[in-house]
Amino acid sequence: xxxxYGQALAFLFQPVTLVIMLAAxxxxxxxxxxxxxxGMIGLALFLPLVFGMRPEVGLTLLVAFDAVVFTGGTITAxxxxxxxxxxxxxTLFDGFPMNQKGEGARAIGAAVTSSMFGGLVPVFLALATIxxxxxxxxxxxxxxxxxxxxxxxxxxxxxxxxxxxRGLMSGALGILLALVGVHAATAVYRFTFGTAYLYDGFDxxxxxxxxxxxxxxxxxxxxxxxxxxxxxxxxxxxxxxRGAKDVWQHKLLWLRSTLLGYVFGLIPGIGGEAATFVxxxxxxxxxxxxxxxxxGCIEGVIAPESANNAKEAGSVLTTxxxxxxGSAVMALLMGAFLMVGVTPGPRMMVDQLPLALTLLxxxxxxxxxGGLIAFFTANRMARVASIPFTSLFPLILILxxxxxxxxxxxxxxxxxxxxxxxxxxxxxxxxxxRPALLLGFVLGRLLEDYSLLSIKIHGPxxxxxxxxxxxxxxxxxxxxxxxxxxxxxxxLQRRLRV
Amino acid sequence: xRIRPGSYFLIFLLLLGLSGIIxxxxxxxxxxMTLPLMMSSxxxxxxxxxxxxxxxxxxxxxAASEASAESRTSTRVEWQRFGVALGWMIGFAIVIYLxxxxxxxxxxxxFYLKRQGRGWLMVALVAVVTTAVIYSIFEIGLKAPLYxxxxxxxx
Lengths: 498, 155
What we know:
The complex is a heterodimer. By secondary structure, chain A is an all-alpha fold.
């Protein structure tokens, strides 16, 4: 274990790694600041760059980027009343009113400090829990892994977006798309229609850039966005420091919110918004002055921002240890793992422990870097949000097309990406879950491999093992959760009232 | 009864599920057939469920669903914007196919930004810098050659 720590730290403190992380952090902050872009598109744009890199380099770049996106999103939330990323929405309630009262710099100071330490501490929590998690994850074999994959997809399908049915359809569609191409075990060509391009199936980069990148560009064009924001706000550094001091004065609130965020991150499918809103809610409930919430209260900024960054360490740990990505961003990250030849899951925590530690410590370092940069440059960075959409459109499109071409060296990838963009747009407009589709796509082949292997070894009733049965019960519970929520809960409430 | 756009998408998914079922049954090996067949069936069945729900909802709200002139105009504007954005994307893709990335990138930027009313100096600067950045990242940094286009075969 100590050796693994040594290797991880030695790699992270190499000058090249530091430069790569710094670049990823800067881009992550900027992507977070620009509303509508966020982590998903940014990560998708980064994927082609990771192609061919050493796993530790490529994956560190991605986690560093992902770790600070929400810190960037805070700045626009406070200064411009626009959440840079969806989880920053809870910061609007008190962040923007503080700005209106002339305390924007103080709010930024508090938010950035909360985010920075909120992202740092859970990493050490995650590192401390690895020895406890290891024996559990080692008990998982192919039947349990097959069940885990199904649970992962169902979690995201049922818990994200509106309709559970549409979520499950999206997940199933993702799995079906993953099965296109030659089936390695039987050499059967599936859904290739005699096209050589489809023999290898669709690649993750085209699918993710289409579903999220192209679809968002089309969606923003339809909305007719001219500029995202025009306001510029001035702030003093001394006020930013005052905000940092506020976090120290509310350290218990910060700790509670950080722990909440971490726990929410560990549970797949719950999503960042839930973590920040719950953290905001508990801050209000436990505050001595709940009536001040919503009018520019510093506690209303500290709580959601601590939870925001804290959940990322939890999500990364679940993704690595169990191979269950808890969100679309994590699904994409898992796709990147597979792309560079690393299979997340129980074996990773044993065979690739140095890499797992590198990534967790990388999140901590990225949070410190991002926090410090945002602390001193928040005001200037916020101006990025004033870039007209018409200027961003061609630049993002060029990156998307170049990235998708490089992924396979095939020009066909470009029309394929556009087609996935249209699918993503339709899914967004009609409330289908794009994260569930992406997760199904990432995990589809794994699901098939694990289930076929399980049938070969244990027969068709492979799921009759204690852990698998438990996981099956969780899966069934999860699938019936929306129905239970709609029928049983109101019935119970009525009975209790009577 | 007017069918809502969401229902068309569900019908598309229903047909996709159905063709998936038919396609899967053609695979001769049970191992390669099982999962595609299961997933296609899931899509097919859930699409039917959602379509039934959708039609019921439509019947309930039909009286109130007469679109106003204002909303029809807004939909037309949205379609126009969608068409323009998609047109730019497809146009850029065609130019890449013909001329390759290094020529298509500045060309696309010049046409797009001039159409948005930007000044020549700004347009030229953005076109040159962006092309240089793309070339540096992919060709030099990642050693990943960008597509050269059909034009390369002619000359």
